[in-house]
Automatic annotation (TrEMBL):
Start and end residues of each Histidine kinase domain: 41-256
Source organism of the structure: [Eubacterium] siraeum DSM 15702
Whole-protein coverage range: 322 to 581 of 581
Subcellular location: Membrane
Protein name listed in UniProt: histidine kinase
Length: 260
């Protein structure tokens, strides 16, 4: 896409010539389109639980719910409200990622410390599903905002728990391979069908809305992961087999201590 601007007041004059600026606006238009799509998707995703909440609340208000079903409807309202709250938190997270990280926020992030903190935080959710989390390997350090690397690991590990089976396993392994640090998160959960593999990093994409709505998911987690990884010059790949499990691999540039 190009935009053409005649610079001289009278535009371009065949006799006297003129000056014209041609600017490629493809990227700008594309990012405007992405923003428009994002808001349309966000609006739709928020409207669905809101419609359910209003519907259930109206039924209760009009006394149309049998006594023995009241708790069920109240439970539904709370679940949908929680879902809206998760979507809003993820949207706020994305908008904070769009803002530039300040120099003070960037620090040496030790991956073993961050993974241990994430493991401790997600342990209750894992034990509720009878899932074990193991952490091993050699730690490495990246220069980044702590909150970004924490968020990155947390999103991947919480997926490995959410989409796991009862009694499943989550293995977090760290590898220092020279200038690159690798974080592997492997689970033996429900897996992802082949046709969805290259779509799971898209904003709001969920493999199966039914199964993931139950898990309180928004389809934003992996897009946040990808965004963070891109910000720090890394890569993220995902491999999965339906019914067998998933392996997510994040590669980030390592900070080496020059005194070493
Ligand atoms: P969310 O989990 O909030 O829906 P994500 O962007 O993190 O959003 O993931 C997108 C979709 O990819 C999920 O809805 C789920 O269907 C699938 N997915 C992600 N991680 C896994 C995993 N470890 N095992 C199976 N499915 C997964």
């Amino acid at each position: 896409l190009v935009q053409v601007f005649p610079v001289s007041k009278s535009g371009i004059d065949a006799m006297h010539g003129g000056l014209m600026v041609i600017r490629d606006v493809t990227d700008k238009r594309m990012s405007e389109q992405l923003k428009a799509d994002f808001f349309a998707n966000a609006g739709h995703e928020l409207k669905t639980p809101l419609t359910a909440i209003s519907g259930f609340a109206e039924l209760l208000e009009n006394g149309l719910v049998p006594k023995d079903k009241k708790d069920y409807y109240i439970g539904k309202i709370l679940t949908e409200a929680k879902r809206m709250s998760t979507i809003i938190s993820d949207i706020l997270e994305i908008s904070s990622l769009e803002n530039k990280t300040t120099a003070e926020e960037v620090t040496d992030c030790k991956l073993s410390e961050i993974c241990t903190a994430v493991k401790e935080c997600l342990e209750p959710a894992a034990s509720a599903k009878n899932v074990t989390i193991e952490l091993s390997g050699d730690s490495f350090t990246v220069r980044a905002a702590y909150k970004h690397i924490y968020e990155l690991v947390e999103n991947i590990v919480s997926n490995a728990i959410k989409y796991n089976k009862d009694g499943g396993r989550v293995e977090i392994t760290l590898h220092d391979v020279g200038e690159t640090g690798c974080i592997y998160v492997r689970d033996n959960g429900i897996g992802i069908p082949k046709e969805s593999l290259n779509r799971v990093f898209e904003r709001f994409y969920r493999v199966d809305k039914g199964r993931s709505t139950k898990e309180g998911s928004t389809g934003l987690g992996l897009s946040i992961v990808k965004h963070i990884v891109n910000c720090y010059g890394g890569t993220v790949t995902l491999d999965s087999e339906l019914g067998k499990g998933t392996l997510v691999c994040v590669r980030l540039p390592i900070v080496k201590n020059i005194m070493e």
